[in-house]
Specification:
The chain is α+β, with helices and mostly antiparallel strands. It has ten helices and 19 strands. Helices cover about 35% and strands about 30% of the residues. It binds adenosine-5'-triphosphate and magnesium ion. Magnesium ion binds next to loops.
Length: about 400
């Protein structure tokens, strides 16, 4: 039986996650495989150890393969914002056909035209995302195929990446025996799962609070407007706890996950925590308030940095749809309350609702599948029964779904 499977791969600083989704012709995605492996080859979102990264990718993918019961030959890969830049550009072409009906090929050509741009030598184009098409001066068109016109323009966002760090990432995935079928910006993947269409239209900030990085993505009028990445995350909180309470990183991480809260005021007066004994030291007790204080101060620092990054983008007032939190750190109890104080804006934590993968730590990998499905599959439905060869959606990915045989 032929099954249409997509594997989303998120190579994060604290974990590598591989998620396999099965897509049916109605576009419904069922998550059928989940693999996770601790990641030790990255620092602040950038690969520093190839072997360890290859190992983590292999482990995560093998775990997902065992669940799915088939091998995964290729993946769609998440690209983090620290390695990318966004450039707005326009492309213009004359509609080719004698009947002046705009075809897929015209759209492909206009996107190619938008790609013509001077780039610094250390950067390459990883994606072109159409924001709107303009046909004979009429703007705001999302899908011009089938319309009649003479002049087709596109207002597009070009995503560029740092060649060296991307090559390292690609090399690791390939050395793990996987073909890269396409790449997706992690901010766009997160948005698929975490944001509603209204939020993206009205204007919202999506904060992905990960282990080694905090990614700030601004959406407005339905599009990604701006992106910034801070080199801090939940691992810094763990580090602070280890130093502050004089314990190991492992104990510190456990304390954080089991007893951590974002606000000192949330920790009950007098509540104590047992610190496990480590070699040479007696088991000790610490105040829950002390743990909360350490967490709160680092979170305040991270959120303040986000406020500054937004100010640099020119966003000094809260956006209409407020702030949405995702990533592992967004699971911290009380974080939306703390963030509301700091941003002076409405804040909610994203709660992805996919069976088996409800936690926001899987949002990026699940979002990759959704992004690929949504940008590609609606085209399949439109053209089903029509042409024989399915055009790749704007030719952006080689093939839009994995074909596996079992
Ligand atoms: N329940 C929880 N409460 C608080 N923090 C948590 C919780 N679960 C996970 N974390 C923290 O979230 C971080 C990992 O988040 P995530 O898996 O999103 O990161 P990543 O994608 O691997 O890293 P990055 O995006 O920075 O490259 C770790 O620091 C972890 O301690
Ligand atoms: Mg992440």
């Amino acid at each position: 039986m032929k099954r249409n499977l997509i594997c989303g791969l998120d190579v994060g600083t604290s974990h590598v996650r591989a998620i396999v989704g099965e897509v049916d012709l109605n576009g419904t995605i069922n998550i059928i495989g989940v693999g996770t492996s601790p990641s030790h080859g990255l620092k602040k979102g950038v690969i520093v150890d190839l072997d360890k990264t290859v190992e983590a990718i292999t482990n995560a993918v093998e775990e997902a393969e065992r669940m799915v019961g088939t091998t995964i030959p290729s993946v769609f890969l998440g690209i983090v914002g620290s390695q990318v830049g966004l450039i707005d550009n326009r492309g213009v072409v004359a509609v080719a056909g004698a009947d002046k009906e705009i075809t897929e090929e015209d759209v492909e050509r206009v996107l190619q035209a938008a790609k013509v741009i001077a780039l610094p030598p250390d950067r390459e184009i990883i994606d072109v995302i159409p924001r709107e098409f303009i046909v004979d001066g009429y703007d705001g068109i999302r899908d011009p195929v089938g319309m009649v016109g003479v002049r087709l323009e596109v207002d597009a966002m070009i995503i560029t990446g740092m060649i060296t760090s991307l090559r390292n990432l690609y090399r690791c995935v390939e050395r793990a025996g996987l073909e890269i079928e396409g790449t997706v910006l992690t901010a766009l993947a997160n948005a698929e799962v975490a944001l509603t269409r209204d939020e993206k239209e009205l204007g919202t900030v999506l904060l992905d609070l990960g282990g080694g990085t905090t990614e700030i993505a601004v959406f407005q009028n339905g599009y990604l407007k701006n992106l910034a990445v801070l080199p801090v995350g939940g691992d810094h909180i763990t580090n602070d706890i280890a130093v502050g309470l004089r314990t190991t990183l492992q104990h510190a991480e456990r304390l954080k996950l089991d007893h951590g809260v974002a606000l000192q005021s949330m920790a009950p007066e007098g509540a104590m925590l047992e610190l496990p004994h480590i070699s040479g030291k007696e088991a000790r007790k610490v105040q829950k308030k002390e743990l909360a204080m350490i967490i709160e101060s680092r979170l305040v620092e991270i959120l303040q940095m986000a406020v500054e990054a937004l100010a640099e983008m020119g966003i000094k007032e809260p956006l209409p749809a407020g702030i949405v939190l995702t990533g592992g750190v967004s699971l911290t109890d009380g974080l939306p309350d703390l963030a509301e104080q700091i941003f002076q804006s409405a804040v909610r934590a994203a709660q992805p609702g996919y069976v088996g993968v409800k936690s926001p730590i899987y949002s990026t990998a699940v979002g990759i599948i959704h992004y690929i499905q949504h940008t590609q599959l609606h085209n399949l439905r439109e053209y089903k029964g029509g042409r024989t060869a399915l055009p790749g959606f704007f030719g952006r990915v080689k093939s839009w779904f994995l074909e596996m045989f079992d």
